Amino acid sequence: MPAPAPRARAALPKTAGSRAAKASGAKAAGTPAPVAAPQEARRDPRRRVLDAAIACFTRSGFHGTSMHEVCTEAGMSPGALYRYFPSKEAIIIAIVEEERAARASLLERLDGATGFVEGLAAMGHALFSGEMPMVCVELGPEISAEASRNPVLKAKFDEVEAEMTDAIRRAFVAAQARGEIDPALDTDAALVMINAIGDGLLLRRRLEPELPLAQMMPALGHLIGRMFAPAHRSVPSDKAP
């Protein structure tokens, strides 16, 4: 009786495709790193991190946001993110530094206005209308609060604030010299008032997002103008009616 033919091998040799499928399955079993959309991946990675951090900080505040959440928002792995920013503090400082250029553009509204108060109103309109997007509109109160607790951030915050205040001071003094503003007013006290009004409006916008601050700028400017206006000269008694 003839011997039985040899049985065919039960398994075929592994192909490159089967090895790739196995590797892909093994990778899927773990936790994948965040993957950015194609258009997102082409953006400047540093810009992606800053935009993601701003979105997270606006939603949850600085202390309520973890670096992991920033990574997820940016579609970036922790290793890639830490290559650009070693800490959350470094991200916040970068946001404040970036705001410096935006503030310089905002001050052009003050320099180009017909008067000091009109310039302040123009700055407010540009800020609150969205004509000039600035991080401080959303994060101003949060940045100020964090700067009061963090000495490293406060040093950078004070540096940027001083540049803004010095520019407004020069415009204020020039307006006093032109007779638009009462020359008897103390400049330092006036600047504290102007900064307090600006900070208060930013906080009010966070509390009442629907408040039409851009449309209210003419009225607010009128009130500020009345506060700083030169005192009325008294009529001499011999010319009084």
Question: In summary, what is this structure?
Answer:
The protein is an all-alpha fold.
Strand content: under 5%
For the record, the CATH architecture of the largest domain stands as Orthogonal Bundle
Q: Which structural class do you get from the secondary structure elements? A: mainly alpha
Number of strands: 0
Helix content: 55-70%
Arithmetic mean of pLDDT: 81
Q: Summarize the biggest pleated sheet.
A: none
What is the name of the CATH topology of the largest domain? Tetracycline Repressor, domain 2
Cα radius of gyration in angstroms = 30 Å
SS element count, helices: 11
Which stretches are poorly predicted, pLDDT < 50 over at least 5 residues? Answer: 1-33, 233-241
What does this structure look like?
By secondary structure, this protein is mostly helical. The protein folds into two domains: 34-86, Arc Repressor Mutant, subunit A; 96-230, Orthogonal Bundle (Tetracycline Repressor, domain 2), CATH 1.10.357. It is 69% helix and 0% strand. Helix 6 packs parallel to helix 9 (151-178).
